[in-house]
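In response to reviewer comment 3 from the previous cycle, which asked for concrete evidence that the modeling workflow produces usable outputs, we include below a single protein chain processed end to end. The sequence was submitted unchanged, and the resulting structure tokens are shown without manual editing.
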Amino acid sequence: EASSKLSPDMFFAENWTGGQWQGMQYGVPAHECYVRRGLNMNKRLIGEAGLDVETPPTTWDELFEWHKTLTKFDAAGNLIQFGIDPYDAEGGTGPGMDGWTIPELWDVAFFDEATGTFNLNDEKLVDAVETCAEFIRYMGADNLQGMRSVEGQGTWGGSFNAEVQALLIEGYWHPGETFKEKPEVSALNVATWVPVPAFRKGDKVQCFSGHVTSLFSEGEHAQEAFPIIEMLQTKAFCDIVFNEIGWLPAVKEYVAQVDGSQYPGLQFYLDSASEFTHSYGGNYIPIGSFMGTKFAQYREQVFRDEVTAKEAMDAFQRDVEAEWEESGWKEKWGTA
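The workflow returned the following structure tokens.
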């Protein structure tokens, strides 16, 4: 409030509120913020498969057909190329600062902030987990794990850069990072909306989130240090970050003047920030890390056919409710 250089209306509203906890502002968006959802596509692999990158899949049913067409095995049945790993990169995040992609796409309010209650075994989330499992079953869970174990073919862009993965759910930073890491693959990158379930066909989903910078208000020199946070919003600073790695701030004025052609695929994200039909934000739940770990365990049990999706999500609901109570957050929620 004392700053003459910063004000909430400078920032995308969703990013600004992402620095809040129960109505109190604890941080200012900085360094890397902005939108988190996009389907990045390798147009060479797509063209070689006889698909048209100009008419991308818009539903998960269509995405699965692309996935099958793009996935290849050698004579011994080993996976040598695949369409998409639905849990890779932003597809597998959450709940946390970057939101939670699966509930967003299936439009499930999995946590009620007003009451501190969870809705993790919602039938739409059960459907989401089963849908994602089909993609991994088609490749073979062990096949995918084996491919991931090869140096340079990991998650978060590794296998995309190696051109063994054709599709990737990623944030706006992917075009810039790919350009710096593998410019020849960057030239093939095209981005579009992440597909949604058939019942949402036509919806355009985006998530605003990112990082914030905070100072301890009790710190001896907090007031003197605050200009650093102001400096992080300046064009001079943001230009360095954008030109070096492709990251963007949450400052509306800065983003408005960015040249989307600098990094192939970036223009989609710039347009999406105003063209979305449904937007989401970060999830700030004290047991979020516990939830993320448990969800990863249960989703693997589903795609390995050890349990059904319904059994997994029922167990997930029970585990989270138990942790919520045992951690003390159920009792103190809304007062901490």
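The two ends are 23 Å apart (CA to CA). We consider this sufficient to address the reviewer's concern, and the full set will be provided in the supplementary archive.
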